[in-house]
């Protein structure tokens, strides 16, 4: 009796151990939590958990929490160490009516950190089921009048009846257009992005634009109030334009001739135009120096001036005019640097003009006629020079 009982207990224990082992009772799993809007109709404990198409665990529990589904996932430790911390999950179906399973998705740029046991994974979507589609379709159909739907479908059928060839041609042409457009989609997307930047720029200046429009409306109101005066101004402008046209037509040849005569003058002014800034700047600087020296000191300046004898009398051909002066940076008209203490004494330019290059303070022989020569015209020493 005792031997039979022991044998029975032994067989029962062996069968129990086999069943527990078969159900994974001795396996160790890392547990994770998956939250989703819904789990689907055919999501039961024991459903597969896959990653890259390989089963790495199972669903151990399905609960409802605050209107959403909470799934407890059991993943084998050797696979759990391969799940990055930024992984997501989807609840998919093998077929339209098949059972659901959980698919772990690894992003393109996976995180170096691993997903720790007990972490929560968020589901990105749940595969749409046939019953859900029917439910949505039934909800839509419940808000549509069957008579109106029938009339609409009849109108569409009548419109398409006998036009299959044209419709097919239209679809073919559209396909050709889209095929030609596809290579340019990256550029089109870039244009849209740039358009968004431009739109944001315009959005930033909208208050200023609205202010301008507001001011323009005020100006238009003022013009409307002064309509008679504006009309008179326009009539006067028309009359002035007519008169100016008549004057211009009568003197067009004179205008052309005047412009022709101005060409040499303007060319000369253009040639020496680099000197104008020097002249103006020196004038301003000289004015400041005079203000500092006289005008702003509170004192007056007394000058004792007298006329001195000038250069020698004109002699022909010695004193014929000579126009050969050249100078400036590079031998052209221009500006020299501002005179400072480092450039003292001030440099000067000797030009070929026929004038004496002697210093203005040097003693020069005076060849002016004396009083007798002015009165008598000649002296025993010879004719006046």
What does this structure look like?
Pfam families: Mce4_CUP1, MlaD. InterPro entries: Mce (IPR005693), Mce/MlaD (IPR003399), Mce_C (IPR024516), MlaD_Phospholipid_Transporter (IPR052336). Residues 29-105 form the Mce/MlaD domain. Residues 112-329 form the Mammalian cell entry C-terminal domain. This is Mce family protein. There is one protein chain. The protein has a domain at 22-130. Residues 379-385 have low confidence and may be disordered. The longest helix is centred in the middle third of the chain and has 41 residues, at 185-225. The chain is α/β, with parallel strands linked by helices and 385 residues long. The chain is built from ten helices and nine strands. The strands form two sheets. It has a seven-stranded mixed beta barrel with strand order 1-4-3-2-6-5-7. A two-stranded antiparallel ribbon has the order 8-9.
């Amino acid at each position: 009796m005792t031997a039979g009982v022991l044998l029975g207990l032994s067989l029962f224990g062996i069968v129990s151990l086999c069943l527990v082992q078969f159900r994974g009772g001795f396996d160790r799993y890392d547990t994770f939590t998956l939250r989703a809007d819904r789990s689907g109709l055919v999501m039961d404990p024991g459903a597969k958990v896959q990653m890259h198409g390989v089963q790495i665990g199972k669903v151990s529990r399905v609960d409802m929490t605050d209107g959403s589904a909470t799934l407890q996932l059991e993943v084998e430790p050797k696979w759990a160490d391969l799940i990055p911390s930024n992984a997501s999950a989807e609840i998919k179906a093998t077929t339209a009516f098949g059972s659901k399973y959980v698919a772990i998705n690894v992003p393109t740029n996976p995180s170096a950190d691993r997903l720790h046991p007990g972490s929560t994974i968020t589901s990105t979507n749940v595969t749409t089921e046939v019953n859900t589609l029917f439910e949505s379709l039934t909800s839509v159909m419940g808000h549509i009048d069957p008579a109106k739907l029938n009339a609409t479908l009849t109108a569409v059928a009548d419109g398409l009846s006998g036009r299959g060839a044209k419709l097919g041609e239209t679809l073919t042409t559209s396909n050709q257009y889209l095929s030609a457009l596809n290579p340019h989609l990256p550029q089109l997307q870039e244009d849209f992005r740039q358009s968004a930047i431009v739109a944001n720029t315009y959005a930033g200046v909208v208050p200023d634009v609205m202010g301008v429009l507001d001011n323009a409306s005020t100006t238009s109101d003022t013009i409307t109030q002064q309509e008679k005066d504006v009309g008179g101004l326009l009539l006067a402008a028309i009359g002035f334009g007519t008169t100016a046209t008549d004057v211009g037509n009568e003197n067009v040849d004179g205008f052309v001739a005047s412009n022709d005569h101005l060409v040499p003058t303007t060319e000369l002014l253009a040639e020496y135009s680099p000197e104008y800034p020097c002249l103006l700047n020196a004038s301003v600087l000289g004015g400041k120096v005079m203000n500092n020296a006289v005008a702003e000191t509170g004192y007056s300046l007394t000058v004792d001036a007298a006329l001195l004898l000038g250069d020698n009398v004109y002699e022909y051909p010695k004193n014929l005019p000579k126009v050969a002066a050249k100078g400036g940076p590079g031998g052209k008209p221009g500006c020299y640097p501002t005179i400072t203490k480092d450039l003292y004494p001030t440099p000067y330019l000797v030009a070929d003009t026929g004038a004496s290059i002697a210093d203005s303070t040097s003693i020069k022989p005076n060849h002016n006629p004396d009083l007798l020569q002015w009165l008598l015209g000649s002296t025993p020493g010879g004719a006046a020079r």
